[in-house]
Specification:
Blueprint (H helix, E strand, L loop, with lengths): L1 H13 L4 E5 L1 H14 L4 E6 L1 H10 L4 E4 L5 H9 L5 E9 L1 E4 L7 E3 H8 L17 E5 L4 H10 L9 E3 L2 H10 L3 E5 L5 E2 L2 E2 L4 E2 L1 E3 L6 E2 L4 H5 L6 E8 L5 H11 L1 H9 L7 H10 L2
Parallel strand pairs: 1-2, 1-3, 6-13, 7-8, 7-9
Antiparallel strand pairs: 3-15, 4-15, 5-9, 5-12, 10-11, 13-14
């Protein structure tokens, strides 16, 4: 009888549904690598954008939603209609990077200048001290959390109609590499590996105000002190239907092993207070 029970337990483990993680392309590479280190199989990670991940969570087609923006009140309300209690886990801090082609002489911008560029008021690099060359805007599609973060928290307005929307961070990076007049925004992990900027692009320093001190997205002290203006939290969302296996994976992401991989991908680590809050939500 005992042997039969053991066999049944083993069979149930073997055929257990995998933990699904879907959403933010900013988090995709780092979470995929963490999943590989955590378990050879049983963790399925996919992208599609923060909006797609949260929508999948509310529909019950994913257990964990990756997001580079905070969940909206209307999304929480929609979950409640289905009996879902949404819990917010903060995984890491991203210093969003503004990138240009290496041929561009502009090395820093203020939030005001970024706003005027992305809303279409500034159309030429000469408007910000660069060459007499048209500015070519690259950004993300509207289902992206990065799209929403820049729109709502940085430029606080509508994007210019001329912005070219790209499917993910890597597409923006490749476009900027090829386009001398380009500017794009991407998560730090798209351009920073092991603390170094990838070749083929220039990462701009950013100041809060025009003429103020500009800080780099790789400046740990500036990001931790809140001086880098384009910093944001990166999230995972789960519901009250999360499985023990799903919670165990998130706990691994929050462990020293998981956090070291977020750091490798250019993100910054969360503090003790946030970590304690996360742990309370996963009990």
């Amino acid at each position: 009888m005992k042997k039969l029970l053991v066999m049944l337990v083993l069979l149930s483990m073997a055929f257990a549904a995998p933990v699904t993680v879907k959403g933010s392309d900013t988090l995709l590479d780092s979470v995929e690598e963490i999943a590989k280190g955590y378990k050879a199989e049983g963790i399925n990670v996919s992208g599609g954008g923060s909006g797609a991940g949260i929508t999948a969570l509310l529909k019950g087609s994913t257990e964990i939603a990756n997001a580079s923006r905070q969940i909206k009140d209307k999304e929480i309300a929609k979950g409640k209609e289905s009996g879902l209690e949404i819990k917010e886990i903060i995984l890491a801090i991203d210093a969003l990077s503004m990138i240009v082609n290496p041929s561009n002489k502009v090395k820093s911008l203020s939030v005001e200048q970024i706003t005027k560029i992305y809303t279409g008021e500034y159309k030429n690099w000469s408007d910000v001290g660069g060459a007499n060359q048209p500015i070519v805007l690259y950004g993300r599609f509207s289902n992206s959390g990065t799209y929403a973060f820049v729109k709502e928290d940085i430029i606080k307005g509508n994007y210019a109609d001329t912005m070219i929307s790209m499917v993910d961070n890597s597409a923006i990076v490749e476009a900027v590499k090829k386009d001398p007049g380009a500017i794009g925004y991407v998560g730090a992990s798209a351009v920073i590996v092991d603390g170094k900027v990838i070749p083929g692009i220039t990462k701009l320093s950013v100041s809060e105000k025009t003429g103020g001190t500009a800080y780099s997205a790789t400046d740990v002290a500036a990001v931790n002190a809140g001086k880098y203006p384009l910093s944001r939290f990166l999230y995972q969302y789960i519901s009250n239907k999360a499985t023990p296996e799903g919670k165990a994976f998130i706990k691994y992401e929050l462990s020293s092993a998981g956090q070291s991989l977020f750091k490798k991908h250019g993100f910054f680590l969360i503090g003790k207070d946030i970590m304690n809050k996360n742990e309370g939500l996963l009990k």
